[in-house]
Amino acid sequence: MQVEAVATTGIYCRAECSATPLARNTARYPSSVAAEAAGYRPCLRCRPERRAGSLTGLDVPEPVAAALLRITDGYLDDHDEQALASYVGYSARHLRRLFELHIGTTPSAIARSRRAHFARRLIDETDLSFDAIARAAGLGGPRQLHRAMTSIFGFTPTELRSKRRRGQRPGIDGGLVLSVPYMAPFDFGAFLAHQAPRAIPGVESVNGIYARSISVCGHPGIAEVADAADGEHLRLRLHLPTYDSIIDDVHRARALLGTDADPDRPSVLNDDPVIGPLMRAASGLRVPRSWDRFETVIRIVAGQQVSVAAASTLCGRIAQRLGTPLDAADETGTETVCHGASRPSHQTSQSACLTHLFPSAAALADAGARGLEGLGFTQRRIDTIIGVARAVSCGELDLEAADSLDDTVTQLCELEGIGPWSAHLIAMRVFGHDDAFPASDLGLRRAVEHLTGQPCSTRELQARAESWRPYRSWAAQHLWHSAARSHQRLSSIDPLDRRPVQPALRPTHSSTRKRGKP
Asked: pLDDT by residue (tens digit) across 169-186?
């Protein structure tokens, strides 16, 4: 997102800000971080630093994009620039040079800006103490918070809190409430419709809002996401005994819902005769990603060759048996967080059904095949789940890697029981690849057949999808969404459903296909 900086005031603004400086006094910067690195502070009128997607959609080399992804995941909170550079295959000096060339600042400056902007949001939207805000944003303490606020915003934390606009006073009622900006338009209802059949019992719940169990710094709690109904934000409510380092969970919420994804980016699809009309009919649709990456991988693997409802039930059984019960995970206040009277009455029933944290990769690996016996899985599926858990827990499979789509799919397919369909879904949901496309998915084929009136084989779909690059994941999401809205059977359109369904238009067309390694 480009911003305009005004030399005479030392302020940078959104392009649509109502301020009218002289053109000769303005300069453009590729992002708010670049403007801040040049010594400008954000405008108090248009608040450019609060806009979603400030570092998305930048035309940067792949290693820089990979490093940016790691930074937004909080990598530099625990590592230095040298480690980040090694991760993307560069020296620290060369990576800094590329960042300054393409973004206008250094990796460390972006990490500091990320923490400072989150702290500013907590100052505006909560009544948390400055010490608690500093810990929540990973700034160490009030002194570091003071330094960050004065450096980036030009005001002390106390001055910033006093500048809260009328109506910005927080209303903390049974949890910490934060606004999550998104790039409009955003269809929250479509996200809920997609997520509802996939909700893992005991871990997730969907009923007008999305709720799930979470763990922050070892403390269990509950996160709830609702529409703020203002056309600009979602509302994230966190029930936790501590707010230390919640910056990372806010990032996970944004990743799951795709709030920073620019809905105008896949404009190459607008003129496509199949996808174009779908995009115009659902302009606020996003490609859902994941909150917990390992959990999402297991959810996809569990969904091989079974219905959506069965996959959700099976994953719920895993959580029930091997996950950590919320009321036993932390004796210092979890019960209050999960079932306390402080929760608003309209959310109590939904949040009360959240009972467990999904097990970690290490927990599943330690449980072994015996840990999944009797839950309804086939032996082949048990072997795949345990194999994936062991690969993740030992570091063989890095779920935060920023490899290319081809490399990601190749590595996933090397795991026993993972084929192209699963690999592309994992690449889409977990690794965030916009061009992942499970071409063998029967739901996609049925959706295209319904829209075109012509039979569509896997090979034909793959050939048609070439024109949808590099946004085939967006095309796939629109196809699934359109099929759901046309009232086809959910099991025949869902990307996680593996039950064969005979195509209606060509009875002789085979419904068999590859579903991963034998």
From this structure: 443 345 788 889 998 999
